[in-house]
Write a structure and sequence with these properties.
The protein is α+β, with helices and mostly antiparallel strands. About 30% of the residues lie in helices and about 20% in strands. The longest helix is centred in the C-terminal third of the chain and has 23 residues, at about 340-365.
Length: about 375
């Protein structure tokens, strides 16, 4: 096969190629559809090749025929970006798990919520729930106001006239996870991002009893922002020039604790520390532990793995090792129970570092 184009009809491909939304840009499948067309010049991203490689690796016969029909229907939708990127994420997930050596098959949908896939390796079974994240709806609405000529708060317009023409400039504040609420105490850019990541699929209804459960979060179609969430956000702290500190939004979302200091240093020179308002998804202090065994987060150029130390159904040792073979896997930033209590030991070390630096920064104020 030749990737995604072989799943779609010529009419569907034409509709995808002709679609353009002034606020969101091209259709989410456009870049994958045209990844092998060298006559079209644009920056190819890992997500495009991963989709096409997955399509070629997946067997679309037998039990997968119904899933294929559903995938084609969703990928070719024009109005529902969320459903399109969800379908693309499912394709990438299936292909990635096959590349890592797992057997994987889609679970038929029913009226009762179910995970998307079940997988197995060496007789150990598990299930995967896949979700894809788009930029916050308020940011899309804001972009639409701007292209319609409006100037909402936080937007500056200017123009420079020269002989033979004029150049118009528009500068806008952008927040991929949504702007913080100035009337909400403790709501900042970073705490807002932490909260949004922590709450992804928070109802946890799409699981199966008696099996390991993986939450697969795909940020590779994060609207116009796939590169905004970098892999260093999965570290407890990011240290910049002159000792500036920023708390890693992904790490805090899973392993942070209520009251944990969230560091934010801005280019403007402002530095402040905000207490985290909730526990992380996999924090042992959670009153109701997460039912997921682990989370896999797919960033623009990296795949990372966070394990839940309190999981009712932990991953098998063979699963952990095999997951390191996922495409673009980043072992350095992943956290797993390679041996019992490894995750909690790593979290304790991170907490000690965070508390020590909080004390140091507060002393400087």
């Amino acid at each position: 096969m030749s990737g995604l184009v072989d799943l779609l009809s010529s009419d569907q491909i034409e509709a995808i190629n002709n679609f353009f939304d002034e606020a969101r840009g091209r259709h989410p499948a456009w870049s994958a559809v045209n990844a092998k067309n060298r006559e079209i010049k644009y920056c190819r991203k890992p997500k495009d090749f991963l989709v096409n490689q997955a399509v070629d690796a997946i067997s679309w016969e037998g039990d997968n025929l119904a899933w294929r029909a559903d995938i084609v229907r969703r990928v070719s939708r024009m109005a529902d970006f969320e459903d399109v990127v969800g379908a693309l994420a499912e394709i990438r997930c299936c292909g990635a798990m096959l590349e890592a050596g797992f057997q994987i098959r889609p679970i038929p949908t029913t009226k009762v919520p179910t995970p998307d896939f079940e997988f197995s390796l060496n007789g150990n079974d598990g299930v995967i729930e896949v979700t894809a994240k788009l930029e916050h709806g308020n940011e899309v609405a804001r972009a639409r106001h701007i292209v319609n000529g409006e100037t909402p708060a936080g937007v500056e317009r200017s123009a420079v006239s020269r002989p033979g023409g004029r150049i118009d400039f528009t500068i806008s504040e952008m927040h991929p996870f949504g702007a913080p609420d100035p009337n909400k105490p403790g709501d900042t850019v970073q705490t807002n991002a932490i909260s949004k990541i922590c709450s992804i699929k928070c109802k946890e209804t799409q699981i199966m009893d008696g099996r390991s459960r993986v939450l697969w979060i795909d940020f590779r179609d994060f609207g116009r922002w796939p590169g905004a969430l970098t892999v260093d956000q999965s570290a407890p702290l990011i240290c910049g020039p002159n000792g500036t500190l920023c708390s890693g939004a992904i790490w805090y979302a899973f392993y942070g604790w209520k009251g944990a200091p969230v560091f934010e240093d801005h280019m403007s020179g402002r530095r402040f520390v905000t207490p985290m308002a909730h526990f992380g998804r996999f924090a042992k202090e959670q009153s109701t532990p997460s039912q997921y065994s682990a989370a896999i987060l797919c960033l623009e150029s990296d795949t990372i793995f966070f394990e839940n130390p309190m999981a009712e159904m932990p991953l098998a040792d063979a699963h952990r090792a095999a997951l390191t073979r996922l495409p673009h896997f980043n072992l350095q930033f992943s956290i797993a129970n390679w041996k019992e209590n490894d995750v909690e030991c790593a979290r304790t070390l991170a907490k000690n570092k965070i508390k020590a630096l909080e004390h140091d920064r507060l002393r400087d104020e």
